[in-house]
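Anyone up for a design puzzle?
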């Protein structure tokens, strides 16, 4: 990366990442009226790896996610998935090609059971092919939906609450249901927007381990927005850092954690959790970057 502290290892990774199958963002610019929320962002999220997207409040992370999932159209730049141009493609096409997402706020149907919520993930993927299949699923498709949901619930360890109403579950369980729903969709790349938000330390650790297992077993890629640096350092193969819509750093998690540029970006928003005593090494307990930090005003 253009960062002065990126080493040769990282530079090699950058070149290799762009050639791998998966998501490639090139020169992405998104404006809201006169405000540039994301400015000429270039990054990759390959299949088989976990890629982190971090940055202070208002940095442009969710906006980038929204452009990837198709709810925002960029002013400039391109988004491709396995070489297919998705820059202006509808959400349904992206889902059909294998891109799924979760949201910052858990979006479950509280009055439905866990099983029904998880089945919706598979149905959403089918609807990517044709909306009519969601209304009139064929017999074989119903069986496929049911099977995918059972597999996903088993992988996330929530089969024991499959019949419970989602509204009755704890935040930790609801996060697992949300993940299971995304996995049931059998997507090749998952965009996870702060999936550990609201979890306590041990729940967050267990969730991180589960995500690593999912990537290894299912062979998928994950692009994750996350404030918890324990999750970033324990999970990500590579991370990008945004600030005021600009890519200010990219590299391995340890490089991100020890970067002076990243530290400066977070100054004034929240304690980084990076020890002043040794600025070159990642912190023993990196902590939470800015999950509760104040929203900064843009120039
Ligand atoms: N719909 C919108 N209309 C106008 N401005 C917006 C809109 N959505 C986001 N913005 C602005 O774009 C910038 C980037 O916002 P975004 O939500 O992408 O940041 P973020 O990094 O996801 O922040 P957070 O960590 O707080 O979720 C902010 O200045 C925000 O106020």
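Challenge accepted. My sequence:
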């Amino acid at each position: 990366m253009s960062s002065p502290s990126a080493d040769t290892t990282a530079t090699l990774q950058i070149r290799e990442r762009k050639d791998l199958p998966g998501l490639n963002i090139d020169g992405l610019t998104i404006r809201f009226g006169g405000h540039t929320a994301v400015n000429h962002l270039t990054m990759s999220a390959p299949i088989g790896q976990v890629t982190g997207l971090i940055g202070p409040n208002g940095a442009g992370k969710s906006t980038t996610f929204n452009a990837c999932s198709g709810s925002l159209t960029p002013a400039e730049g391109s988004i491709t998935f396995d070489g297919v141009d998705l820059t202006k493609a509808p959400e349904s096409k992206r889902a059909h090609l294998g891109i799924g997402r979760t949201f910052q706020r858990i979006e479950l149907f509280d009055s439905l059971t866990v099983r029904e919520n998880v089945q919706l993930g598979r149905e959403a993927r089918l609807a990517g092919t044709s909306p009519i299949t969601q209304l009139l699923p064929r017999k074989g498709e119903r069986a496929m939906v049911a099977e995918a949901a059972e597999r996903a619930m088993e992988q996330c360890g929530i089969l024991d609450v499959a019949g419970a109403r989602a509204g009755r579950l704890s935040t930790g369980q609801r996060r697992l249901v949300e993940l299971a729903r995304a996995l049931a969709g059998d997507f090749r790349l998952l965009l996870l927007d702060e999936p550990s938000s609201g979890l306590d330390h041990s729940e967050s650790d267990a969730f991180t381990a589960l995500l690593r297992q999912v990537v290894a077993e299912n062979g998928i890629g994950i692009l994750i927005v996350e404030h918890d640096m324990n999750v970033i350092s324990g999970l990500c193969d590579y991370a990008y850092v945004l600030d005021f819509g600009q890519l200010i750093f990219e590299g391995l998690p340890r490089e991100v954690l020890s970067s002076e540029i990243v530290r400066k970006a977070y100054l004034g928003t929240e304690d980084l959790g990076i020890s002043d005593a040794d600025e070159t090494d990642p912190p023993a307990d990196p902590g939470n970057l800015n999950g509760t930090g104040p929203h900064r005003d843009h120039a």
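A detail worth pointing out: The domain at 1-98+188-292 is CATH 3.40.50.300 (Rossmann fold).
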